[in-house]
Amino acid sequence: MGILAFLFWVVIFALFYKVLVYFKSIEILGEILLTKLMAVVFLTFFLMLTISNIITSLSTYFLSEDNRLILSAPVSTEKIYLAKYLITLGHSSWMVLLFGIPVFMAYGRVYGASVDYYLWLSVILLVFLLIPGGIGIMVSTALVNLVPANRAKGALVVLFVLLLAALYLFFRFLQPEKLINPERFSELVDYLAMMRLPTSPFLPSHWATRSLFPLVKGRFDDSMFYFLALLSTGLMSVLAGSWVCRFLYYRGWSRSYESRDVKGKRVRFLEGLFGFLLRPLHGPTEAMVIKDVRIFLRDTRQWSQLILLFALVVVYLFNFKALPLNKVPGMSFYLENVISFLNVGLAGFVLSAVAVRFIYPALSLEGKAFWVIMSSPIELRRIMWSKFWTSLVPLLLLAEFLIILSNTFLHVTQFMMVISTVTIFLITIAIVSMGIGIGAVYPRFRFEDVAQIHSGFGGMIYMIICVTFIGLIILLEAWPAYLIFMARMGRYSLGLLQWIEVILCLCLTVSLILVAIFVPIKIGLERLSRIEI
Amino acid sequence: MIQLIELTKRFGQLVAVDRINLHVKPGEIFGFLGPNGAGKTTTIKMLTGLLKPTSGRALVDGYDVVARPMEAKRVIGFIPDQPFLYEKLTGVEFLGFIGSLFGMQKTEVGGRISDMLGLFELDGWADELIESYSHGMKQRLVMSAALLHNPKVIIVDEPMVGLDPKGINLVKRIFREKSEEGVSIFLSTHTLEIAQQLCHRLGIINEGKLIAMGTLSELMKALEHKTAQTGTLEELFLALTGKSLDE
User: Fold this and answer.
1) Which long-range contacts (CB under 8 A, 24 or more apart) does A75-78 make?
2) Are A338 and A200 within one domain?
3) Do residues A255 and A298 share a domain?
4) B243/B72 Cα distance (integer angstroms)
5) What's the gap in Å between the CA of B172 and the closest CA on chain A?
6) pTM listed for this prediction
7) Which strand ranges, in their side-by-side order, compose the sheet holding B209-214?
């Protein structure tokens, strides 16, 4: 698994390295684009980390099982705050570090940066993480005082409003459409001037970029100034979080504890729909699915994670809607279709990010009540498949929604539309199967906080396997699709050798998908049959 | 109805349960006594399929719990010591779920749920989320679930934990009635008074080994033989497990 993680890093590194080398080769614009890209990466991380910290801290500070014990012990609020701060930071930041570090290392490699750059990078990243951590905790503490954490609907509405505001700010700071649509600028000079403008001089992402970027060229420039801005804000956010917690934490926790929903509210429409869809299933399987749906709909800890899903989907679709790819010089009909192919990979990545939070933990979420199932006359196979079906239907709907809408924005050919919808259909089944299977290999029934499940070792392994799988599928499909596409464009027929290549690639694709669907469930089942609770 | 044959469980070097042999007849209430860490819960977990034996066999209604787990589990009603439940389900939903897991028909399960909720005085809480239940109410709900499918065997780990005196009385009455109906009850407890009042036979386990087994009078005779004096079950227990009352 360690090797797999390393390979994954190498792939991300190699991809970014290629892109950065290409950017660097563009005259005049190259370096500006590279700075801008780093700023965009930092800004995206900043936004995602802030949202992730709000959601994770709601869970760690207010909904975690260990709170009763901790709050009854003679421990000061400041100490609780600091301990939980570190836990929150770890849970909400690992994915960013996993995907972010190879990107920044690629920058270093492109410029042949010295060891100073890498040392500085680790310092900057650590300090950078403090700020969204502090903000997240302050926002969630204030939020719980306004709307108790257990009031699912109220908390969700407020969170959604906050998220929309954050997304609006993100797109206004970034203005992605301007990056790629030079026609809107009457003069090249205007375009360059816009590109040189910082995303916003008051954002930590800007300070991180300005502090780190000069180091790739071995210069310090005003790195120290921006680093101090970053450090002072980071420390201040930790301190401010501590003040907020001192006054509001206990009150908020108490409110969230007092305001639990007592009645088991039912969403009759959804339960009816599931009941209808599950009619062909065996009684216990149907019962498992309905139980999981009911618990999911009532559990604020899981619902709050939907905010992240919503953010991912909006950012994803906005990119395709806002980027006027057809106006970019050199962007052709052919390139648009290549992008639609890459779109499948991106959508797969978004689906994996959703699956690691919702599908991978499906079995672990049985929690301490797992004895109920283990002591009942239900085969483990049924448990696994019930989890599979519960997860598959919503993820498939999301997958097809994403791919059809983004392809429509891209105006792809019917051929590409069919290929992408079928591919994403199969990829989604595999993602679900791997989530359930790997979730059974690394079950965690004793947890204080749901975030512990997906942020553990198993979650990381699952994410890496998913991304590697999606990458392989795209590679295997890209070549035959390219051959067929070029033959159509050039109005010629494929030769025998080319047909063999096409068939071989497709056979390999189908085999890989079948392996990804059945092997993880089988391994998970074997692991589960040895489990002792 | 329950048969343990050379049942053993090892955790690495530790022998938690060491070659236990016993037999519980239909309608018998068997008390399984022992100090903390003696191996009571491990034995119960092996009986209910939550742990696999290292060696030996556990048979329930003639079915080996490892070789034929589905058949064995179908006749067992299990009440664990800690009532960990699905906190976001209501009492009635939880019982409905259990009914489905045990393959009960939808037409049959509704009536049984009402009966059980009534029997354990939970009918006023049927539509409340389990997370709002007290510990004792959760324990009573677990008992309702265990009896829902009319099991032939009831396996109970510390039945009275968290119950108020009224609840304890109710459970004792239900266990006696079930025993009269021919249901075997395997009951692990620390509460010697409960064991004395309820159980037809007792087994005492210490450091994984079954060190004494028989009816209360048989065990008392054994105590007389060992200490040359008469005594209570508590004294017998302490004498056999090598503890003094001060400990």
Assistant:
1) A77/A245, A77/A246, A77/A249, A77/A250, A78/A242, A78/A245, A78/A246
2) no
3) no
4) 37
5) 23
6) 0.76
7) B76-79, B153-157, B184-189, B29-33, B201-206, B209-214
Q: What is the dihedral of CA A55, A60, A64, A68, to 10 degrees?
A: -140
Q: How far apart are CA A20 and CA A24, in angstroms?
A: 6
Which chain B residue shows the shortest CA-CA distance from A373?
B101
| Structural domain ending residue among the three candidates B109, B130, B150 | B150
The verdict on a CB contact (< 8 Å) between B100 and A295 is no
Domains contained in chain A, number? 2
Non-local (6+) Cβ contacts of B45 within 8 A are: A532, A533, B51
Alpha-helical (H) ranges within A26-151 are: 29-57, 67-72, 77-111, 115-146
Interchain pair B74, A368: CB under 8 A: no
Contact between A284 and B100 using a beta-carbon 8 Å cutoff: yes
Domain that includes residue B8, residue range: 1-75+152-247
Specify whether A144 is located in the same domain as A7. Answer: yes
CB spacing of B89 vs A291 below 8 angstroms: yes
Same domain, A308 and A361: yes
Note the ipTM here.
0.89
Give the one of B76, B80, B89 whose C-beta lies nearest to A294's C-beta: B89
Q: Do B50 and A295 touch (CB under 8 A)?
A: no
A529's CB contacts (< 8 A; 6+ apart) are A380
Q: Distance from A59 to chain B by nearest Cα, in Å?
A: 16
pLDDT in tens, chain A (533 residues): 567 667 777 877 887 888 788 778 777 777 777 887 788 788 878 888 888 888 888 888 887 778 878 888 888 888 899 999 998 998 888 777 777 888 899 989 988 888 889 999 999 999 999 999 999 899 888 888 877 655 555 565 666 667 666 666 666 555 555 555 545 545 555 555 555 555 577 888 889 988 988 888 888 778 899 999 999 999 999 999 999 998 888 888 887 766 555 565 656 666 677 667 766 666 788 888 888 888 888 876 666 667 667 776 777 777 666 655 555 555 556 666 677 777 888 888 889 988 988 899 999 999 899 999 999 998 888 889 889 988 998 899 999 998 998 888 877 778 888 888 999 999 999 999 999 999 999 998 887 777 778 878 888 889 889 988 998 898 888 888 778 877 877 788 888 888 898 899 989 999 999 999 999 999 999 998 888 87
Pick among B60, B65, B88 to test the A interface (most A CBs inside 10 A):
B88
